[in-house]
Specification:
The chain is built from twelve helices and 14 strands. It is an alpha/beta fold. The mean pLDDT is about 100.
Length: about 350
């Protein structure tokens, strides 16, 4: 049975977007591919208002999180975390042999400059964090964090996981002025999974020249060499790129400010519902995500039973995640999802609760 996804990802993909990928296959070394690749790069720069390099690689965003770490850190980094996915970036660095100083912020709370005061040392090569933590629904102020890093060590690189933030909220790429911003297609870009995107700074590329053991698949210097001629380093998912090109055109037509306002409206609708029907939102006030809601379960609420009834009616949401899995659940409201669709979902959820 088909279900409409209101999950944290992969998310709902609109029929017209699916149709846009139904084109004859081309090779990734032909003129038509170069035009497609180049158009995507320019449209990403325009929609996110950035002059950074735009790199594409087949895979999940985790590929580029690992790539940024392998290219940007010789020995030591600082990882800030307030949830499962901040922990993942720390784990990636450690598994690649890096020493990571850790700043653990309470789950449900935003990461703030005071949390890293005095923590960015002269030997800190990179600071990494998640802008929108999808295990907790917390959207931290990455501009403030980046400024706090620069005040302590202007030479430290910065990597931001924007997987569930990019294209749902204005992440202010120019104001952040960080060295790597990473996301993928299966979240607010509203596409199937399979393509990772990195916004990359010149500083990170220069640092990569001094770092050994960068690997092959996400060696940023190899990727840039190919990217300069609108080619991919390795075979890309061409059909998915057709879809990405189509989605970026849709966003330009909608307008980014209108897109962010639509996400705000959907978030407000779910927050109001959570306050009335559950025990409110898990994240602290003022730092709640506009792409997903992490909701405190009401007393006696059986998520598995509720979700099975919801799926039987053609809707799917997400369970809690990580340390708070048993006391929360999540609703994704990003991409091509509309307030009307959220209204329908909440109405069905009300019906099930009243039964």
């Amino acid at each position: 049975m088909s279900r409409t996804l209101f999950t944290v990802g992969p998310v709902y993909v609109a029929p017209d977007t699916l149709d846009s990928m139904n084109k004859p296959m081309i090779t990734h070394r032909c003129k038509e591919y170069k035009e497609l690749h180049g158009d995507i790069v320019e449209k990403i720069k325009k929609t996110l208002d950035t002059d950074m390099e735009v790199f594409l690689v087949a895979g999940s965003a985790t590929a580029f999180l690992e790539g940024a770490i392998r290219n940007g850190i010789r020995e030591k980094s600082l990882g800030i975390t307030n949830g499962s996915f901040g922990n993942r970036s720390i784990e990636i660095a450690e598994l690649n042999g890096k020493t990571v100083d850790k700043v653990q912020v309470e789950w449900g709370k935003a990461m703030k400059p005071e949390h890293i005061e005095g923590k960015v040392g002269k030997d800190t090569e990179m600071v990494h964090w998640v802008s929108n933590e999808s295990s907790t629904g917390v959207f931290s102020d990455s501009v403030a964090l980046a400024n706090a890093v620069r005040e302590q060590n202007p030479d430290a690189l910065m990597m931001v996981d924007a997987v569930t933030a990019a294209y749902a909220m204005d992440i202010k790429v120019k104001d952040m002025d960080v060295d790597a911003v990473v996301f993928g297609t299966q979240k607010a870009l509203a596409l199937p999974p399979g393509l990772a995107v990195m916004l990359c700074s010149e500083r990170l590329l220069e640092k990569a020249k001094t770092v050994p053991n960068r690997g092959f698949y996400t060696d940023l210097l190899k990727i840039k060499k190919q990217n300069d001629t609108n080619y991919a380093l390795t075979t890309p998912p061409v059909s998915l790129m057709y879809g990405l090109d189509y989605q970026l055109d849709k966003m330009l037509k909608e307008g980014m400010s209108a897109r962010y306002a639509r996400h705000q409206k959907m978030a407000d609708m779910v927050r109001d519902w959570a306050a009335k029907r559950m025990d409110g939102m898990f994240p602290e006030e003022g730092y709640q995500s506009n792409s997903l809601a992490v909701i405190n379960r009401a007393a006696g609420f059986d998520f598995d039973d509720f979700h099975s009834k919801l799926k039987a009616r053609g809707y799917e949401i997400s369970n809690g995640y990580g340390d708070i899995k048993e006391k929360t659940f999540r609703i994704g409201h990003m991409g091509d999802t509309t307030p009307e669709m959220i209204g329908q979902l909440l109405s069905v959820m009300d019906d099930i609760l009243e039964e």
